[in-house]
Amino acid sequence: MNSHVQTKKLRTGVIGLGHWGPNLVRNFSDHPKVDLTHVCDIVPSSFDRVEYLIPKSCTKTTKTPEVINNSEIDAVVIATPSSTHFALVKASLLAGKHVFCEKPLTLETEKDKELCDLADQLGLQLMVGFNFIFNPGIKKLKELIQNQRLGELYSITTKRTHMGLIREDSSVAWDLAPHDVAIMNYLLDASPQRVSAVGSYPLGMDKLGIAFIHLFYASGVIG
Questions:
Q1: TM segments (predicted)?
Q2: Closest CA to 93 of 111, 107, 75, 113
Q3: CATH of 10-129, one of 3.10.180.10, 3.30.70.660, 3.40.50.720, 2.170.270.10
Q4: How many DSSP H helices and E strands does the chain contain?
């Protein structure tokens, strides 16, 4: 009898080949424990742009149900515009799929909670792509904080800008701030008790283009 246990690869489909999707296609196709079987985008020309990243055996489709409702797929990766996340994540969970979704999970707190509760009820993994908390530099910073190598912590300041790409379906607060909130929560092992924020609309759109956010933690730290 072979003493080595054969681990089944996680059969995965990626939906969305826009700004960030190609990075996820590359990472999941390179992962030794993942079998990337499907990639999906509603724009057919998107496949040509990332053809070199897509495994030859991978099925390409412009129809999301062909990924979500495929009984041979174990997990769905979602990298579509933020306003589409809720419907796609919910459909994937109800289809029995584990889900990795790019941030933000949705654009409404109640919808976030609904999806998290649904994943718990169904015994499925739902993960949001807060990639910075896996960054070696951030992990080292947490180690220094925990070992009190930096002294007593009073505040954390971050600044995030993104020149060029303008999201039409979400504000700067939803597009960029989730990374910094995730980093602070990770460093402090806590969620803020209070939040205050102000912003402006310099681009003349109905979505915030500039935001200043303060997070207040029970420890007294302000972010």
A1: none
A2: 75
A3: 3.40.50.720
A4: 8, 8
